[in-house]
Every structure is written in structure tokens, then in C-alpha cells.
Amino acid sequence: MKNFVKGKIIEVKFLGKDYLKLKIELPSKNFDCFPGQFFMLSSEEFDLTIPRPFSIFYHKERTVEFLIKRIGKFTNKIFKIKKGDFINLLGPLGNYFEEEKDIFLVAGGYGIAPIYFYLKKYNNLKNIKLFYGGKRKIDILFFPELKKILKDNLFITTEDGEIGEKGLLTGLIERYLKKEKPSKIYACGPLGMYKSLNEICKREKIKLLVSMDPIMACGYGVCLGCVIPTKKGNLCACTEGPIFESDILDWEKL
Amino acid sequence: MTDLKIRIGNLELKNPLILASGCCGYGLEMEEFFPLDYVGAIVLKGLSLEERKGNFPPRICETPSGMLNSIGLQNVGIEKFIKEKLPEIEKRKGVFIANIFGEKEEEYIKLAEILSKIKSISAIELNLSCPNVKKGGIQFGTDPEIMKELVKKVRKVYEKDIWVKLTPNVTSILPLAKAAIDGGADVLTCANTYKGMAIDIKTGKVKLYNIFGGLSGPAIRPLTLRYVFEIYKKFKTPIIASGGIENFEDAIEYFFAGASAFQIGTILFKNPKVPYEIIEGLKNYLKERNLRKIKDLIGEVKIYE
After folding, report:
1. Are A38 and A94 in contact (CB under 8 A)?
2. Is the Cβ–Cβ distance between A87 and A74 less than 8 Å?
3. Contacts of A152 (CB under 8 A, 6+ apart)
4. Nearest CA of chain A to the CA of B149: how many Å?
5. Shortest CB distance from B25 goes to which of A51, A219, A221?
6. Where are the beta strands (DSSP E) in chain A?
7. Residue A237's closest chain B neighbor by CA?
């Protein structure tokens, strides 16, 4: 059910100068949200032409939360939003990461958003390992909470080693795979990270699912703007994704 | 009792609000937001004879008060449409218009022939103006002689109404409007998107894979409004306005200029429930001015003497 509703901002929490967490009250409880799904957000106040997609960071009953990184026109306007303001939401949209055992979760930068929701939504996290990489320490968010949930199953990398291991996340994962193989890998992060992961997973014969983040206009499958080139043709990330199995993606065209 | 019923060509529509081709899929996708017969008509995503994959991404980007698109007419092709989409459409109530595109005259004629046998399609809209493909489209929409010939040939094989969707990427639209009318068009859709481009200064790269795309949204409204005004003034022909309409006020501007109906497209991406606001807005506007029918406004713009 794709609901198009007005939500009320009930909390704006800044996480450093480039990130914030938005907590929104939905008008009803009739939303069934799963990790990996997203909402299209817009506001008449912003006066922009098309809405923007944001992964669900957390959802429970009438509350939905989003992690926002200040990047461009839209997100800069979000940074000026206040508690009590209203925002338009369309969703929940897209497919989702299904609950699985013995998997690796991989988050690159603000790709932590749907991964965080996965950890909060599903109960069986016994053998789940999270590999979370960022450029710098300020890009590694919610470290204390993640540590509490995952304990020794949390692996961090930063490019300068300010926190966690120094280097690229994919390097750490490649080394770790020599010790232990997961049943699947769920990843959310930049395209470059996916390309490296795809090579590694092909070699190690591990199923990889990635969350694609193209520019979107409608979010509900009519504009055909957000297509991802795949072996099955051009598929809209908003209706056929955003999560795709890496072996159906047409990597040459991405 | 305000009456939003309008006659456009030979079609009687319950209201002048029409969904634009390319912005509402095959109609079914809009059902989550409103019943398909709530709007006057729905123009389906452009159909070609063969399935088309469309252009490589990136295909869209936002621009000030608008957006560029270079989708490239991705569609399932007429065969798959009839097999997979049409049965679903026929289960619903509504007025459905097929938009067609070809790279050669024969393709338009073949598509029109096929669609003439389909009862659930009430009219066809000829896309002679897509700026997003390398061949075809452009010549048909920019050369009056070629346009007239094409419309004439389609006219021979299609008995229901023909809407010709004009391209605004011309020096003068009047010869083309005349060519479409002389060729046998019942209605003119004015107009398609404007050719434009954008560059990302962070990377120095063009924002669209195809370099150029079609500009739509509020930014183009003054431009298309002028075309509607000029065409109506000269030919007094049925016109469906299409260009940057976001609310009922924008639609009324177009009525004054001479449009009998209007299409909405880009606004549906931001507000898929906007039809409700527009229909209520139109009803209230008429009520407040004690006008019984929307057609009392058509072409009634006043100019300075």
C-alpha cells in the first residue's frame, strides 16, 4: 500500500555538521515498513520540482525516522526544518532485505540507514556481522549503540584509521572471508563499493544483494527515470528494487 | 450546480483534467491514488511497434522550477501492451487515450490501424515531437509538409479522434498547427517538452547520459501558454494545453488563452493526489464567479486595446 500523507516533524537531531536524524509522526498506524524500503519526501515549503528518496532508518507504529546527509539543494533545505513542521511522504516503497541467518551486513557511509533498521527490526541477530566503513570518524554514526547490539560482530574501517581499522571496507571483508563465509551479504553504500564487493563475491561464490540509489522523480514506477541496467533489461529501482541481486546487474553499464 | 463536462473534438469528457503521456504509466499505476475515472481522460505511455529499452541512465534531473527527462520512449511495444496491459485497463472504468510514436510513417499507420480495432481506446495522440530519440519524431513535428502527410495517412486508417501533440522546439508553431489541422487532426495537444540540458559543476559532466532532454514543469508554462494563445487566436481549433500546470489556477490561465482541456504530468511526481485539489479548485472557481460551465472561459482572455 503506497500511502501519500502529511507527516509532522517531532524531532530533528543533529549528528555533527553534516548529518541529522529526522523523526516524523505519521497520521496512522497503517504502514508496514521493512528494512531496505524507502519513502519519497517533499514539502511545499521547499518549492522543488521532484521529491527525493530516503531509506527508512527506523519505523515503529506511527513513527518513522530518516538519516539525512547534507549533500545538495533538497538536503540543505531539510537542515533548516523545525520540530512542528510538516513534510509529505509517499511510501513505504520498494522491496526489502528479508530476515536471514548467518549473513554479513555491509554499510558504506550513509548506507548505514537501512542496515540499522535491519538490526532494530529483526530479532535473530545471533550470527550477524556488520562491516561498516566511512571516510572519517564523523561518518561513522551510532557507534555506541551498534557496539551494544553487535558486540564483537561489529567491524569498522575509516580511510585514515581515526576509528576502527585503517583502509577500505572491502579490503577488510575480503580478508575476513578467508576465515568465514556468510550465507549472504546485504550491502548498502556507494557504487564503487558494490563493484569491489561484486568481484569478491563472484570469486568466493557468495550471494550479494545491493541497494541501488539512482536519481528518482516519482518513486512509484511511472516516470521510468530511475532505471538500473540489468540482464533482464532496464528495471525501475523504485518498483523492482531498490534491492537487487548483484549477479543480475549489468555491471558494464553501471 | 457547476458542470465540468467538456467536449474536446468528438469526445465528451466528464472534466477537462487529463493525465499526460509518460507521467502515468499505463494508468493502472495511478489507481493507488485515485479511481481512474475520476479524471477526464488518461493518455498512456507512448507506444511503438517494437519494444523499446529507452536511453541509458542518468535519464532525469531537476532544474529550477522544472526537470529534464531523457527517458527515450521506453515502452513494452504494442504487442505486449495488448497482451499484458490492455486486459487490465479494460477491467477499469475510465477514458483511455493511446499515445503513439514511430520512426517511419508506416509505423504510425500500422499502430493506428491496430488501435482502431480496440474499443477501449477512445482516441490516439500522435507523438510527433519527442526530442529524446535520434531518428524520427523531430522531422514529423517540425516540417509542415511532412506533418500534414503523416496526419493524412493516419486519418485514412483511424476513424476515432486524432490528437496531434505539437513540438514547441520550432521557430513558429502556427504552420505546424495548420498542417495538423489540414491533415485531419481533431485536436491539438500543445505542447511537448522543450529541448534543454544541464551540467554538474562538481564533476564537469553533463547530467543526462543523452546530453539533451525535455524540459517540463512550471518553468515552461509562460512559453506554452503563448503557443496556446497564438494557435487559438488564429485557428479557433480544439486545444489541449500541456505545460507546467500544477494547480487549478494554472489550468484556468490556459482556458482563458483558448484551451478546452489540459494535461498534467510533472506535478504528479511530487503530488500524485493533485487531481482532487485541481477538480475541487475548478468547481469553486466557477461557483465563486457564478459560471455554470468551464467552457464559458475558453478563449475569453482580454487584451489591452
Report:
1. yes
2. no
3. none
4. 31
5. A221
6. 3-14, 19-25, 38-42, 52-55, 58-60, 63-69, 86-93, 104-108, 129-134, 154-158, 165-166, 184-188, 207-211, 227-230, 233-236, 243-245
7. B57
Looking at the complex, does the CB of residue A229 fall below 8 Å from at least one CB of chain B? yes
Active-site pick, B23, B24, B130, B190? B130
Does residue B130 carry a pLDDT above 70? no
Its pTM stands at 0.96
Smallest Cβ–Cβ distance between A4 and the set B56, B63, B273 belongs to B273
**Is the CB of residue B114 less than 8 Å from the CB of residue B86?**
no
What does the DSSP 8-state code read for residue A98? Answer: P
Longest dimension (CA), chain B: 57
pLDDT tens digits along A195-235: 999 999 999 999 999 999 999 999 999 999 999 999 999 99
H-state helical runs in A79-224: 112-121, 143-150, 169-176, 191-204
Lowest mean pLDDT among A214-218, B87-91, B290-294: B290-294
What are residue B294's phi and psi, to 5 degrees?
A: -65, -30
**Residue of A48, A216, A224 lying closest to B54 (CB–CB):** A224
CA distances to A227, B86, B126, B137, B152 from B114, rounded to whole Å, are 29, 13, 14, 20, 17
Structural Rg of chain B based on CA atoms: 18
A218/B69 CB distance under 8 A:
no
3-class secondary-structure state, position B113: helix
pLDDT of residue B103: 86
Q: What are A132-153's pLDDT values in tens digits?
A: 999 999 999 999 999 999 999 9
- B190 annotated active-site: no
Q: Is A1 on the interface with B (CB under 8 A)?
A: yes
- C-alpha–C-alpha distance, residues B220 and A7, integer Å: 31
Helix (H, G, I), strand (E, B) or coil at B4: coil
How does DSSP assign B6-71, residue by residue? EEETTEEESSSEEEPTTSSTTSGGGTTTS-TTSSSEEEPPPB-SS-B--PPSP-EEEETTEEEE--
**Nearest Cα to B85, choosing from B137, B127, B45?**
B45
Residue B29 in this model has a pLDDT that exceeds 70? yes
Spans of chain A, pLDDT less than 70: 1
